[in-house]
Amino acid sequence: MVASTVNSVDLQKFAFFDGLSTSDLNHITTIIRQTRYVQGEYLFNTGESAHSLFLLIGGMVKVSFISIDGDEKVLDIFEAGDVLGDLWLGKYRHRIGQAMALDDVTVYKLTEDNLHNLIQRCPSLGINFIRRQADEQREMFARMHALLRADAKCRLLGTLLSLARHHCCADGKTFTLNPLITQEDLANMTGLNRSTVSSIINKLRRQEVLGGTGRSLTVYVGAVEQILEDEGFELLE
Fold it and tell me: What φ, ψ does residue 177 adopt, rounded to 5°?
């Protein structure tokens, strides 16, 4: 783990800071610090006392927890521009999962005191934070709904669509899954086993709903949306 200074230009990559002035962004650079983690290093672990949230500048982070049976359950995947590790801001003050760098990662750390002071200085930051929390809650309920009532194919497609909408390119037509996200990760995120995920992916490739070979996986977003809509699932825009 290596720490260094903050660049205000990087802060503009975050919707979290939309509407803030250049002066406000420059002020933020004086109170937060950049930290780097190497591949395989943990940003935090389950049960740790929490004291900061993370603004992801570069790299990819997997947040998961280990079940009582010793199985890993993936909660979410984060890429550059995402904010993670903020669930402790309520009454529960400990981490409920672990965050591992899937490759070399750069983050900005923002403490609770930092956040409170910034919201007092920049009220629009507080509105941005509330909107982000509301969006994430809506997406979480949609994922829970799909997991509870969908068959295996739709659970997988719903997860891939969620990843596509979160990380995809501007045109939104095709999405190539980052190879750092494995079929085992997809299985953990959907409550399936790896062999089932592999079988479904191969079948959907033949149907041209998905593309790619081996670890390269392409999602044809329109085709996935059509299948889920035909099955009666709400598609969040």
Answer: -65, 135
Which helix or strand (DSSP H or E) is residue 4 part of?
Answer: strand 2-4
44 shares its domain with 100:
yes
Tokens representing residue 92 in the block: 């529960």
10 and 110 co-located in one domain: yes
Question: Phi and psi of 31, rounded to 5°?
Answer: -120, -10
Say whether pLDDT at 102 is over 90. Answer: yes
8 Å CB contact between 101 and 59: yes
| Closest C-alpha among 89, 128, 102, 95 to residue 41 | 102
Using CA atoms, how far apart are residues 147 and 140, in angstroms rounded to an integer? 11
Confidence check: pLDDT of 109 > 60: yes
Give the pLDDT confidence of 154-209 residue by residue, as tens digits: 999 988 988 888 777 655 688 999 999 999 999 998 889 999 999 999 999 999 99
Asked if residue 106 and residue 6 are part of one domain, the reply reads yes
Residue 29 within a domain: yes
Based on the fold, state whether residues 116 and 160 are members of the same structural domain. no
Boundary (domain end) residue, out of 105, 134, 163: 134
Residue-range definition of the domain harbouring residue 222: 150-230
Question: Tell me: the pLDDT tens digits for 3-54?
Answer: 556 677 788 888 888 988 888 888 888 888 889 999 999 999 988 888 888 9
Q: How many domains does the chain have?
A: 2
Looking at residue 207, which CATH number applies to its domain?
2.60.120.10
Angstrom CA distances, 13 to 4, 39, 80, 128, 163, stand at: 18, 23, 8, 14, 19
- Does residue 1 surpass a pLDDT of 60? no
